[in-house]
Automatic annotation (TrEMBL):
Membrane topology of the entry: Single-pass membrane protein
Pfam families assigned to the protein according to its UniProt record, in alphabetical order: Alg14
Record's keyword annotation contains Membrane: yes
Keywords from the named record: Endoplasmic reticulum, Membrane, Transmembrane, Transmembrane helix
Family (UniProt): Belongs to the ALG14 family.
Signal peptide: none
Protein's name in the database: UDP-N-acetylglucosamine transferase subunit ALG14
Organism: Lithocarpus litseifolius
Membrane-spanning intervals of the chain: 12-37, 130-149, 169-187
Major place of residence: endoplasmic reticulum
């Protein structure tokens, strides 16, 4: 009889564990759907206060386009600015430092007070085998998580480099978990005329980006949730 009672108790405990697990999964999925829903809606207007801004830089023209975009933004609105680039991309951070120094010359405010510069491990180098890239990708994700916990930006600006994917994915996870609601703005490169880049396509299809901007009208017709803004 005692053996039967123990068996029933074990079955009930297992059933309760499965029930709690399923409830947890359902709650998590509801949060995911809510984050995707909110990210696809127009942003709420807020008081004009400075917002900490993470700016993702990349080689191959991405940095030049991003700095052109930053040149027309309200610098005091998007402050402090945290620039981040791949660990092997020193040129992009040098350009960002020159840009911030030029702003300091105009405003008289030292760049160290308004800007930070960081590097992140790259998921995959050009020509790297896919087998070895598994380990480097995991390392890049872990590093991105560490940086995002430290930075927790209110705004993320990116325009194509693959470095932005783990950062944006972690920012979206933070939304789901209620840690930080970061507004993600993705500006597709002007070089993309007929279709989105892989980074843009992932952020568009998964509804991770709050706003996705394209610079060619045919792209907006192909991806109707994108916003056509002309050549920036």
């Amino acid at each position: 009889m005692e053996k039967g009672n123990g068996c029933c108790f074990s079955i009930m405990a297992s059933s309760a564990t499965i029930t709690f697990f399923l409830i947890g999964i359902n709650l998590f999925m509801c949060r995911v759907l809510y984050a995707m829903y909110r990210s696809s809606k127009p942003l709420r207007k807020r008081a004009p206060q400075p917002v900490s801004t993470l700016i993702v830089l990349g080689s191959g023209g991405h940095t030049a386009e991003m700095l052109n975009l930053l040149s027309v933004l309200q610098k005091d609105r998007f402050s402090p600015r945290i620039y981040i680039a791949a660990a092997t991309d020193n040129m992009s951070l040098q350009k960002a430092r020159l840009f911030e120094n030029s702003l300091a010359d105009e405003t008289g405010v030292r760049a160290v007070k308004t800007a930070q510069f960081m590097q992140i491990y790259r998921s995959r180098e050009v020509g790297q085998s896919y087998i070895t890239s598994v380990w480097t990708t995991l390392l890049a994700i872990a590093h991105a998580l560490q940086l995002m916990i430290k930075i927790r930006p209110q705004v993320i600006l990116c325009n194509g480099p693959g470095t932005c994917i783990p950062l944006c994915a972690i920012a979206f996870l933070f939304k789901v978990l209620g840690i930080r609601w970061s507004s993600i703005f993705y500006v597709e490169s002007i070089a993309r005329v007929k279709r989105l880049s892989l980074s843009g396509l992932l952020l568009y299809k998964l509804r991770i980006a709050d706003e996705l901007f394209v610079q060619w009208p045919q792209l907006q017709r192909k991806y109707p949730r994108a916003h056509y803004v002309g050549c920036l």
